[in-house]
Amino acid sequence: MKSYKCILFDLDHTLWDYESNSEEALRELFDRYQLQQAGITSFNYFFEVFGRINTGLWDLYDRGLIDQSVIRTERFHKVFSAAGLDEYKLSLQFSGDYLSLLPRKKNLLPGAQDLLQYLRPRYPMGVVTNGFDEIQGTKLSSGGISHFFSTIVTSQRAGSKKPSVGIFMFALGELGFDPAEAIMIGDNLQTDIAGARAAGIDQVYFNPRQAAHDEKITLEIRTLNELRAVL
To answer: Distance of CA 156 to CAs 39, 116, 214, Å?
Structure first.
């Protein structure tokens, strides 16, 4: 690979282990709200329903078809209803508690901490994320990785969201580099990979499940540790 001068990272599903942290938070709240007694069959079923609906809503958001307020106000009502509990007021309360509890979870994806420790003396690094502005900083602090990054760019702060070129150029402007000098690492083919490519930035697709695709990318990896051999 060519020599790069800075690195951009996605956060959720790339460094911060959204799946594990979400499961921990949801399990805690499932018990606190006594949802099984309220009629939801089991936590495993609840978690499966949440995963399906949450993924669908974030896909709509990434494509600009809904805004963040829909996720905040409708996500758990949809989950509750699909799981057999029609309680809108309760779902709003649950949503607020989830958004408060989730970012305080600490799990990182395997190899993330070691990789960042390896890269930090060698490259300025930034995070580029579409997540909620007030939540992403807490995730980075909870995971103990805030200090690795020179800038944290959220869609709210940049005024545009991935895959828009604007958010990538905003991040590069803060780091002081051109697109040809940067590389973007992320797990989402649409927001991270296609977005970076449109901005003229080389891309690393983090694909631990080896999902099939036909996107043109600079590099594909299954584990974060693979980056140490090329960066």
So the answer is: 38, 25, 31
